[in-house]
Each structure stands twice: as structure tokens, then as C-alpha cells.
Amino acid sequence: MNYIKTILNIILFLTLLFSILTALMISRTPQGAIAWLISLITFPYLSIPIFWILSCPNFCGYIRKTNSLHIKKLKHYLNITCYCNVKVVEKLAILPLTKSNGVKLLINGYITFKSMFDGIKRAKKYILLQFFIIKNDNLGQKFKKLLIYSAKKGVQIFFIYDKIGSRTLSSIFIKELKKAGIKFYYFGFCKGWKNILFLNYCNHRKLIIVDGKEAWIGGLNIGLEYLGRNKKIGYWRDTHLHIIGPSVLFLQEIFLEDWYWTTETKIKNLNWKPKPIISNKKNQHIIIVPSGPVYNLNNASLLIQNSINIAKQKFWITSPYFIPDQSVMDSLKLAALRGVDVKIIIPERTDHLLVYLSTFSYLSELIKFGVKIYKYIKGFLHQKVMLIDNHTASVGTINLDNRSFRLNFEITAYIIDYDFAKDVDYMLKQDLLYCKKMKLNEIKCRSLINKLLSKTAFLASPLQ
């Protein structure tokens, strides 16, 4: 028995040593490496399997290359510019800025779902869909029936969902979609037991593309809670976009990358002819910015840093979760010191307690530098929106946390347009009417237990 015990101890030691060396090699930040080292050494039996499940996927098969033939067809709609900011964002996106787009701001669930459902009804050839969460509730059922109806009309439908986000989705729901001829897959190349290695890398994108002509992206998933009908969470504040124009085809390209990674098949006979907006009033410039673990640039965090750094008068941002990395924290502090009006809007309510507790460790430091923090008190704020001065705004799926920066597949529409920025400015000012400005004293006067819980959650923030 002692002989067997000795062998097991040697195996554990070697496994632990190999795990520690791997953590040092693959961690993107010192904080993440330290957090893993502490966990592995302190709780090896628990931490070793968790580490290998959460930290070691292989994305080498993911194709991150835009088809040059498709870009060639869009040459007339690419806006060649020498502006430094645009060039930086284009490099982060690995996609060019396009002109002749039309963007409509969709505020909250009722307006968004009506717009999306009407668009699905207009589909003649195909629909591409991607969602993080799909609920099997009344709205989910309505959504399913609409897709089945479209499929019966001869519309081809290709659907990717996230298995973790939609973990409560019933097998009956899935079977009904597949029975109607809808190609419905959960995101990820590996099936069966190997898929466990990718559980920590969710596809957080929300995307609908109809006939390659119009698209919808933003913060809303499919479920009644996004209409504010969840009694626990209450009123739901979110923002989505309806886009028409050449940028839709880049959204289509991004979907195809995810589709190929998921199915190892290509979708043929798609529309690659853009539908430009002729009106000068709606000639909006857009850069579509995909982000995720397949990028070596850590481009989600860099996009936000760049947006903060170029702001001269104002930088406003909203996020349901606030656990920024140190680089974003430093950029926010410097902007406030430059005299930029920096406002951060976060929800008072939460749907993730650990993330909420971590947030307090960041807020007091920012307030000391002059950053204004607002808590949205009307309900749960879920929108992911940025406003830069009076000329640029973005709407997408990126949260201000480590998961969005380094783990999730995300997507953002970065829009350079005075009229659109004006609309976003008005929208956020309306949100501020339902906000309470946080004061330093409010954070300092919390109970000792609350402070200890916040600091404990803060230590785990690199892993969140």
C-alpha cells in the first residue's frame, strides 16, 4: 500500500509541476498567473482538473482570415483614410472601415425584437443567426415558430448557439428546429468529452443577418427577461443595432468563421453584393470589430484603451460588469486627469454576485482620480455602449471584464458619425436620469464583512 501511495504522490507532484509550468507559459497577465499558482499549490486536487479544463484549448483550426475576393467586391465602399484613430481600429479589427451604411439605434427589448422579427419575415433566401442565450419561454417559442415558418417558405437558416449560455435549452426545442431543416449547432469544434476543454471559451456574440443585406447586433439574447419580465431582475435596459450597408457583409464573414470552426463546412451561394445607403444623412462609417481568444492582440481591451486615449472632451461607457484590467484602469485615470469628462454607468442590481463584489475594489480608486461612476437604479443595465466626444460611438457585446477581454468571442460595431454619436449621447443622458452618482464615502462606509467579501472576490477577478 505504501508503494502505491508513493507512486500516486509522485504522479501528483509531476502533474502539479507540469500544471504550474504551463500556467506560467500560457497566462496572458501576471495577475492571472499568480492566481493560478496560488490555486494550484493551495488546492491541487481541485485546481489541477479545473486548470486543464479552463485554460488549455487549441484554436489553431480557427480560420481568422477574411476572404480577399469579398473585400475586392467592397472596394468602392471602403473609406481610405489617413486618420490615425481609424487606422488603429482597423488593425485591431483586421477589417477595414466601410462607408454608405445606415444604422438605427434600438433601445430595449420590445423595439429590438419587433425589428428583428420583422427582418426575419422579410428573408427571401437565407438567415444567419448567432446567440449566447436562448430561453425556452414564450418569447423563445415565438422565435422558434417564426424560424420554422421561414424555413417552410424555403429560406435557408444557419444557427449557432452557445452551449453554456443556452444550457437550459430543451432537447425538444432543438429537435423541432432541426426537423424543420434548420441547421442548428452549438459553437465549438470538438464534440463529446473533448468539448469540456473549451467550456471556458464562450461565444458571446448576438447576431442576425438576413440575405446579406441587413443585420442586428447588440446586447440582447432571446428570452422574456430581456423584455423585463423576470420578477427577480425586473426592468431590463439594453441596446441593439439594426445595420444596412456594406458592413453587413463583414458581419457575414465573421459568422462564416465561427460556422467553419463549428461544422468544418462552408456555406455556399451567399449574397456578397452590398446594399449601400444612398442618403447623405445616413452615410455612416463603420468598423466591425470581432474579438476573442483566437487573436494574439487582446484586441477587446486595446479597443477600449484606444477609445479612452483619443477622447478630448468626453468618454462615456456603460457595462453590466466592471472588472477592467490594469491598462484600462490607467487609461481611465489619465483621461480624467487630462480633463476629459469620464462617466461609467453600471447597474445597481446584479445577476452575478461575485462579479458585483469585485467591482467595488476598482471604483474607489477611479473616483479619487475624478472618474464619475453612476449606478443605474431603474432596473438591470445590460447594454455595452461607448461614446467618444461628439463623433464616435460603439455598440456591441464586450463587457468590461476579464472574460470579455480574453476568453469570450465578442463583436462590436464601431461607428464614426456625428448624427449617430448625437443619438447615443441623448440616449445615455436619458439613462443618467435614472442613475445615482456614487461617492467615495459610500464605498468606504460599507460594513467590514462587505469589504472582506469584495477583496476576496477581487483576488479571484483574474479568473472570472
Give a verbal description of the structure:
- GO terms for molecular function: cardiolipin synthase activity.
- The chain crosses the membrane at residues 6-26, 33-54.
- Keywords: Cell membrane, Lipid biosynthesis, Lipid metabolism, Membrane, Phospholipid biosynthesis, Phospholipid metabolism, Repeat, Transferase, Transmembrane, Transmembrane helix.
- The chain is of the alpha/beta class and 464 residues long.
- The chain has three domains: 2-55, no CATH class; 68-78 and 102-282, 2-Layer Sandwich (Endonuclease, Chain A); 299-463, 2-Layer Sandwich (Endonuclease, Chain A).
- The protein is built from 16 helices and 17 strands.
- The protein has helices at residues 2-26, 30-42, 44-55, 68-73, 84-93, 109-122, 138-152, 171-179, 247-263, 299-310, 326-337, 353-368, 402-407, 418-432, 440-444, 448-459, and strands at residues 98-107, 126-131, 156-161, 183-186, 207-210, 214-218, 236-237, 239-244, 284-291, 314-318, 341-347, 372-376, 380-381, 385-388, 392-396, 410-416, 435-437.
- A 15-stranded mixed beta sheet has the order 4-3-2-5-6-8-1-9-16-15-14-10-11-12-17, with helices on both faces. A two-stranded parallel ribbon has the order 7-13.
- β5 (207-210) and β6 form a beta hairpin.
- α12 (353-368) packs across α16.
- The longest helix has 25 residues, at 2-26.
- The protein is globular and about 70 Å long.
